[in-house]
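User: I'm curious whether this sequence folds into something compact or stays loose and floppy. Could you predict its structure so I can see for myself?
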Amino acid sequence: MGSIVAMSVRAVCPACESRQFKKNGHTHNGKQNHQCQACPRQFVTEATERSITPGQRTLIERLWCERISLRGICRAVGVSLPWLMHFMVERFAACPEHLHAQVPKGPAHVVIHQLEAEADELWTFVQKKANRQWIWTAMDATTRQIIAFHVGDRSRDSAHELWAKLPGVYREQATFHTDQYEPYKSVIPVDRHKAITKKARKTNHLERFNNTLRQRLSRLVCETLSFSKKLVNHIGAIKYFICHYNLTKVAA
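Assistant: Here's the prediction. I'll summarize afterward.
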């Protein structure tokens, strides 16, 4: 399942196709580097091109959800970090906004199953611990699927953002179980909001999911070297995992 390796020899600049170039030191892996005299492009004359197999791509997508650092994936699968970062951003962007969550299809289904949901927050950080980012999540209490999430601060504004991302049927019909945190009271209708204590155990499914997030995503571990450097990648990794998690719930 290794990479397909091919060697190409360049006699011209890959940018402007000029044949006028000179030696210009060596690359980080010891290859002779050249610089074009017609443009600023630098290149090597003997370039190694690797084709990543479909099997490698599938394995990488599975490893993203198994608490392995990006550099660890590079070592295990045999790909470069720049390629992995590009592939990661591409796959994160492909995740659907609906998160693969199964939403009730009609009023009859809502009445029969009496929609219930749980909401909670999880502390994380990006770049440094002073830059706190809270993951707000909402889960269907019956299917155990994540129906919405938001990454932001721990203010009332973030509570409103989470509420806005919920499927309409949940905003209109579902009963929500949360802890006693004040911002929830400003967004969830009073008649459908159940603010409970820890002993009531009405948010235990979502709290268990938060633990799963920390166990499966290395960038969410409190003491880690695999923390997110950019907020967009932080959100992308969480969204990717939630989509994967929801699909496993459908299969189950």
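Summary: DSSP finds eight helices and ten strands in the chain. The radius of gyration is 24 Å.
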